[in-house]
Amino acid sequence: DINLNFKPKEKVTFVGRTGVGKSTLFKLILGLLKPTKGRITINGIDVYDIPNSEKRKIFGYVDQNFPIIKGTVADQISLQDESITRKQIENALDFVGLTAYTASLENGLDTQVNSDTLFSQGQKQLLAIARAIVSDPPILLFDEITANLDSITEEKIVAILQKAGDTHTILSISHRLSSMIASDTVVILENGRVKNTGSPEMLIQNDDWYRSHIALEKLTWG
User: Fold this and answer.
1) Residue 221 predicted with pLDDT over 60
2) Residue 93 in contact with residue 57, Cβ under 8 Å?
3) Of 50, 46, 19, which is closest to residue 35 (Cα–Cα)?
4) What confidence tens digit (pLDDT) does each residue in 57-76 have?
5) Apex 22 CA angle, 211 and 31, nearest 5
6) Cα(216)–Cα(176) distance, rounded to whole angstroms?
7) Which residues pair with 171 in a beta bridge?
8) Among 68, 45, 65, residue whose Cα is nearest residue 57
9) SS3 content of the chain, % helix, strand, coil (to 5)
10) pLDDT, tens digit, for every residue of 120-175?
11) Segment 68-114, tens digit of pLDDT
């Protein structure tokens, strides 16, 4: 019983307690799960009917984990998709601020990635964003991607996400309301339902849970 409509380049953040269905909703939006009833559509096309081979052109998805694949630094971004050019890879790395670091590696973009130690946790999240945006999909989904980062790295990532929001539709799940990117719309989920939705300014006025959660974070995070 969820009914939501989003506009191009709208920035939407989904919030709520653990286990309310935020990540499941993302899997439905991506067409990885099929709704038991109803449809999720983009411009009238059911996402579940879009071939997986086409989905990377539509969606860029980032979560807390960055799976390293066998190959070079460039391969980590392109996922060895031959339709993605070297210039696209370079542009994606420049967008997330990793150009200088990757240039300092032994063979630059052609450096083999043989272990998890080549990149820090924060750099892996930046690589994940680069992987998501390299094909310039119109819709980006971010699932609690700053949950395991220190506050300084988190601020850097949020700034990059904010920049991405200038040209993309952004759907994000945030574990902390105070760290989420500036959103046009916030959707509060509770027990698999939409409890409330509106602008952050509106919710701070009329939603007790949202207001108290913001106040609690200010006390516990400095």
Assistant:
1) no
2) no
3) 46
4) 999 999 888 889 999 999 99
5) 145
6) 10
7) 12, 141
8) 45
9) 40, 20, 40
10) 988 999 999 999 999 999 999 998 887 777 777 878 888 888 888 788 999 999 86
11) 999 999 999 999 999 999 999 999 999 999 999 999 999 999 999 98
| % of the chain exceeding 90 in pLDDT | 58
Antiparallel, parallel or unpaired: β 11-15 and 169-173: parallel
Name the amino acid, one letter, at 187: V
Residue 78, both tokens: 């392109």
Going by C-alpha positions, the residue among 124, 57, 55, 52 that lies closest to residue 84 is 57
- How many of the other CB atoms lie within 10 Å of CB of 147? 15
Phi, psi of 72, deg, nearest 5: -90, 175
Return the H-helix or E-strand segment holding 210. helix 208-220
Question: For residue 158, what are its two tokens?
Answer: 């949020």
